[in-house]
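lol so apparently i was supposed to do this last week
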Amino acid sequence: MDVGIVGGTGPAGRALAARLASVGLQVVIGSRSADRAAEIVDDIHKKWPDRDLPLHPAANPQAAAAPLVVLATPWDAAADTAAGLRAELSGKVVVSMGNALAKIDGELQAVVPPGGSVAWGVQAAVPEALVSAAFHHLPARSLGDLNRPASGDVLVCSDHPEAFEATADLIRRVPDLRPFDAGSLAAAGPVEAFTAVLLSLNGRYKGRATIHLTGIDGDNKR
Ligand SMILES: NC(=O)c1ccc[n+]([C@@H]2O[C@H](COP(=O)([O-])OP(=O)(O)OC[C@H]3O[C@@H](n4cnc5c(N)ncnc54)[C@H](OP(=O)(O)O)[C@@H]3O)[C@@H](O)[C@H]2O)c1
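anyway here it is w/ NAP bound
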């Protein structure tokens, strides 16, 4: 296995799983219910019958046994879920993709979780993990549409150079995605919060906007 996605049955997790599998990575889709994970893997295979997607269903602890783990639960469950998988996640690169958002007066707004970001909460829950924050700005609809390239610039934050590199290498596997080093986990809060603006734009203009940086070139090692 290459990547495990904890909470991989939601729109974000399954889109990321399908995209990573489409470039040949072995991906475990994790769930609190292994049966639900199996249903989702079946759904993805039915959606893309002509593609050989190496996807594997599992309960979350098995997904968290992969060498690199993405947390794709709702943001307010990310830290508790990570804490429950502490043994599996210790010493590993763990990618947090949660955005702390709430609908207030009909508008999606960023909320500030303890420590300032979802990723901070995950790192605090499993201090032995090498947490990075990434994938916040890629809409699941376009990420999971394998008929089109998943184009976009992915901001990666981490306190651990090794986690930045592993996350950036994963992103580089997908043609047309570019990783950028956005700094330490202290930068994860504003990166996550900006998703509220993007989602509002996408709602207002009926789009699938993500971010593309101009004025700097990748490739971008620390
Ligand atoms: N949707 C997007 O376009 C997008 C894009 C970028 C980032 N994100 C972020 O990615 C994360 C996942 O987004 P999503 O839309 O896929 O979320 P979601 O559908 O609400 O949740 C994903 C999965 O998490 C599991 N889950 C639900 N409640 C849980 C709980 N209390 N504890 C543990 N697991 C729970 C469920 O899987 P099981 O029931 O199978 O366990 C669910 O299918 C979010 O944090 C979001 O902010 C989303």
